[in-house]
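Office hours follow-up: a student asked to see two folded examples consecutively, so here they are.
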Amino acid sequence: MRLAALLLLSLPAWAQSITVSASQQWTDTSIDLRVGDAIVITAEGTLQLPQAKSCGPDGQPRGFRDLLKVYQVNDSGLGTLIGRIGSSDVALPFTIGARKEIQVRRGGRLFLGVNSGSNDSLDGQYTATVEFTKHGPENPAAVTYKLPTVTLGMIDRIPRRVVDADGNPGDNTNFVVVGKEDNVIDTFKAAGWVKVDKDTKEAFINGLVETLKKQSYVEMPMSVLTLFGRPQDYGLAHAEPISVVAQRNHLRLWKAPFKVEGQELWVGAATHDIGFDRDNRPGKKITHKIDPDIDLEREYVGRSLEETGSVAKKDYIMPSDPSKEAKTATGAGFHSDGRVMVIYLIPAS
């Protein structure tokens, strides 16, 4: 009996067809995916685009006009079939096109849509077929990972604030990630975070290259802040083209000078740029304005990483000397509950 059940789990279960209309942003497939599922999505059909053009599920090749638009998936062209698993604000849309195989690492409802900007007028529909090639367990056994323990003493060894080049205290250090460098950066990348350029020269070159490739540029540099006596090891951002100049989720990462039971510890400071503000430092005029409730950005970082299916555990530690009310290096006030979020990545096998 058990053997028969195992065989059923290993065989394709069924296929379902879904009509995806270009007139609505997302189509609810009513298909709930679970961890371990493997599906193949195929699609056919034709959409009518502006200027008497048309395209199939692979969408229209990107052009220079696409650089001035904000799509759900900015690296794909107008009319491309796209998907999303889950409905949270950190569920990352992805390109499907005419065919895509998906290994599900984070369960949730499957949504399908058509890549387009807010002012695009598209007509028509695609017929997408979702076929299960493997079913994950309905009631998966709890997985216990051997994880190191981040202690209060370790958190207290981390400065509560980063500083600018003049030594002015700035953002809170509000989260840490336990994991190897490659695993940490790959997880952020899978969650939709991109490495920002290090300086304006690099930004100009990369922006030009992205433009020539007709790809969106979202890697605009961020200012250099220091922790442990050195600049950030990585600057990462979540942003949309066009609005990236004024608004983006962003963070800085530093490798801690100590380890957690042999594991690397990465210290982060995350804030959300929401516009522009006056810079109160001498000789400065304007800077980015951050959301003063910085805990919202801390939680955004945590949820985005959890969506990748690579987080083994998330915890919080209250430092002995929490930073709850302060000002950035540019003079803007912010507030926090003072806790540091601790993210343990699934150990690399």
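And the second, which I mentioned at the end of office hours:
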Amino acid sequence: MKLNILFSCIFGIGPASFLARADWVDEQKKHAETNLDANNKPSWSQAEYHTPNDLFLEFSEIRNSRAFIDKTFFLHEWLTHRPKHWYVTAPPGFGKTALAKMAVQFLNASAEIVDGVEKFHDRHKTAVYELFQGTNIFEMKEFFDQHFQNYAVIYVDLAPLSNTTEAMYLKQDDFNTQDFHIYFRLVIKKMMSYYPSLLFHQSLTDIERERFREYLENGMETAVRPTLFWNCVSFLKEMLKKTLKKEVIVIIDSYDALCKPSMVGDLSKLQRPYIGSYIINFSKLLLQDRLATVLYLGTIDTRELMLLKPSDVGMQTALSITHTPFSTDERLAKYFGLSKQEVDDILSKHSMEEHLGVVNDLLNGHAVTGSSLTLFNTKYVLSYIEHRNASTIAFTMPSTTEILHHYRKIFSVELISNVVTPCVYKIKLR
């Protein structure tokens, strides 16, 4: 058990969430391959809403389910008290993506392009407004009026990049052969697809329109080069500012996606400096706009991937993204995972109150520094409810051998091995 806690500290994952990581790569790979094979070229109309419909449907489903727990005060915490460029890490299954999609719905203006001109809808008459009625944030009238649907939001999900198996510097690279670039194109295409009707805005130049069309259709311009991967978010940001004339907020989910292949991938096909160069330049271009608001969400601290030695991490100043592990701040931690009271509330809604003791024994395990608060993995609580405790095997922690085998490639990196190995075996002896 002590070893499990050690790995939770190293990788930022809770004990109950390890199994999610074990299955995670296969699930993401299947999802990404489906998207890559699908014939999903966008079809556009001049009355296309900018609100991402799939994100709306996902949040709507959560909002109207018996499992809904009101975490909307996170918006106030983030926009009022936190840095402009803020990176929050929490374990898989602790609701990061749900928070991101909730934020997109709350902040993103509802608009359409009519005859080449932007037209904004009455935000008090939108379906999203109805979803937020009755929530905690709805009662904060001044904050709600100031921020609700008052921005253009860019939502970027980097998760497909975690499937990368090939990423090396090639002298004659077409940027379409290695799966790293293919997955990156998929990310860009999805990001752009939330705003297809920008093509019809009269303020775009012919060059801007053609560039945007290529991003929509192929996830990349024809004359591909590394800078276009790095600059994709900044390009869309400028197009939104120009057409919608709204402040742009960027939300980046799975910001640490490239850490995963870097840790457990085949190092003969993956060059960490090459992967690192992409995230460094991607981040630098976002940081050039110091006034922009960017929320980064992930599981693992990315600074080592930015080619820093552990001894230099504390002195990092070049990339001024403020990182906050969720479990180091009780005021922040309550927005992730589920407290015991929240689990009790959900179980009650499903007439399973008597299961609280069992759920507590199986799933409670992530502590918050300097607090008595402990948090449950949301994904596993909901899985328990869905299967009505059909099997407790699904929640059994893997053995020490299984953990070491799963992360065996990490230990081949001398920089990491020298630090981690003594800790692992020292605790084992205890």
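Two things to take away from it. Confidence is low (pLDDT under 50) at residues 1-51. The longest helix spans residues 18-37.
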